[in-house]
Amino acid sequence: MTLFSRALLLALLAAPSVTLAASQVTAGVPAKSQSVAIKMFAFTPQVITVAPGTTVTWTNADEDPHTVTANDKSFHSAALDEGEKFSFTFTRPGEYAYFCSLHPHMTGKVIVKG
Question: What class, spelled out in words, does domain 33-112 have in CATH?
Answer without folding.
Answer: mainly beta
